[in-house]
Amino acid sequence: MKTNYIIYYSLLLFFLRLEEKFNEYKDQLKKDVCGIISHDDDDLSKTKREKQSPNGSKDRTNSEADTVIHQVMFCLQPAVRSNITVFNLNSDSYLSETIFRSICRGELVYFKDLLIIQIYTFQHVKDF
């Protein structure tokens, strides 16, 4: 039970730091995300939304927007952002090649980190 509280407060602290880091852009992010979530693509979805209660739909949209905003803020951190691969439609490469390169790069980083951990562990075990 104590572990659950530690995890909860660690996540809460993490989200508060994210919000602090991107506080300047939060209003713009929220406006853009809400616009994407509630976008009217066709009349059918518009009619469907009009039948729903306005408060329930608005609360759900705000909850979805907050979740997406936290995900976007997480991806905007420099350490995470540097690992995101962007595919350019105007480039000469194929999407499958770009995905394959990203997977290989991710595996390389994973095995490099694993090797560092193993070396570190081996050095500490050897010292005892």
Distance between the termini: 34 Å
- Principal-axes geometry comes out as flat
Element order: H for helix, E for strand: HHHHHH
> What is the gyration radius calculated from CA atoms?
22 Å
Q: Could you tell me the strand content as a percent range?
A: under 5%
Question: Helices and strands: which structural class?
Answer: mainly alpha
Number of domains: 2
Provide a descriptive summary of the structure in words.
The chain is built from 6 helices and no strands. The protein has 2 domains: 84 residues, no CATH class; 42 residues. By secondary structure, it is mainly alpha-helical. The chain is flat.
Topology:
Elements: H1 2-21, H2 23-37, H3 43-51, H4 54-76, H5 78-81, H6 95-127
Summarize the structure.
The chain is mainly α.
Name some characteristics of this structure:
128 residues, mainly alpha, 0% strand
